[in-house]
Specification:
Number of helices: 9
Helix content: 25-40%
Largest sheet: 9 strands, mixed
Radius of gyration: 28 Å
Strand content: 15-25%
Distance between the termini: 68 Å
Structural class: alpha+beta
Number of strands: 9
Length: about 270
């Protein structure tokens, strides 16, 4: 980068005094120096923002977020299943193609904010549960249970059609797949009407109350900045093939372990 100083503008009238002539030259040079300085600062800022050290720090932050989300989802799922009289029936879990957990969703962010809750999804593979994949959910109506408190949501995807919805850029529950509040407790078995007709079964837990709730209108979207940070792949790529959780780091395995504790290694499907 070269700054040219002392360049005198051409075509100045002979009537200008030497002082006037120098003042004009100085103004021109100052303007050129200012433009050069701004350009230099912009280039320096770009190089700094794209430096490997900064990118590495951002990547580390995203990986940490995925581990935290996985741990929260595992805790929620485990707490729900430890109440046998008010838990998700295990025969439904055995038939589910995928399980999603969205912990601590706040009503303001879920319904109004647009960003919604952050969650984790794992699909069933031929020999176990696949890599945890990260999603957001928002919009729709979530009923009176939430109030002003945080609410946990669990979704069971019961067939291949609903699983296919997760591989889209966005997936509206109730519009693109039938959804119903899932049954709870020991008395609710796999032969219920909910299982026969709904592609997605949904549950919520708020203020200690756990029950089936229809999340019609809720839109689920992949959080691919996190998926790429951990796997180098999108949610569509991760869910689109039958692979085990061989790429998940130790920090993500807690969610898979929580699911596996209450489900068989593989299911026969509905």
């Amino acid at each position: 980068m070269r700054v040219v100083l002392g360049v005198e503008p051409k075509n100045l009238s002979p009537s200008y005094s030497e002082m006037e002539r120098r003042a004009i030259v100085n103004r021109v040079n100052h303007k050129r120096i200012g433009v050069s300085a701004v350009t230099f600062v912009a280039i320096t800022a770009f190089l700094w923002l794209s430096s490997p050290a900064l990118l590495g720090k951002e990547h580390g932050t995203k990986v940490k977020e995925t581990a935290e989300q996985s741990a929260k989802a595992a805790k929620v799922f485990g707490a729900i299943m430890q109440a046998p009289d008010k838990s998700i029936p295990r025969d439904l879990l055995a038939r589910a193609k995928a399980i999603a957990v969205f912990p601590q969703v706040i009503k303001a962010s879920f319904v109004i904010g647009g960003e919604g809750g952050r969650g984790v999804v794992s699909r069933r593979t031929s020999s176990g549960w696949g890599d945890p994949v990260f999603f957001r959910a928002g919009g729709g109506s979530v009923g009176w249970q939430i109030g002003a408190s945080a609410t946990d949501f669990v979704l069971l995807f019961m067939n291949d059609e609903s699983m296919g919805g997760l591989m889209k850029d966005k997936f509206e529950l109730g519009a693109e797949a039938g959804i119903a509040g899932g049954p709870v407790g020991r008395e609710a078995g796999a032969g219920t009407d909910a299982l026969m007709h709904a592609e997605v079964l949904s549950y919520s837990r708020s203020r200690g109350l756990f029950a089936g709730i229809s999340l019609k209108g809720v839109v689920v979207r992949p959080e691919d900045d996190l998926n790429r940070a951990v796997y180098g792949q999108t949610a569509r790529e991760l869910l689109g093939h039958d692979s085990d959780a061989t790429r998940a780091g130790a920090g993500l395995l807690s969610f898979l372990q929580a699911i596996a504790q209450y489900t068989p290694a593989s299911g026969s499907g509905p």
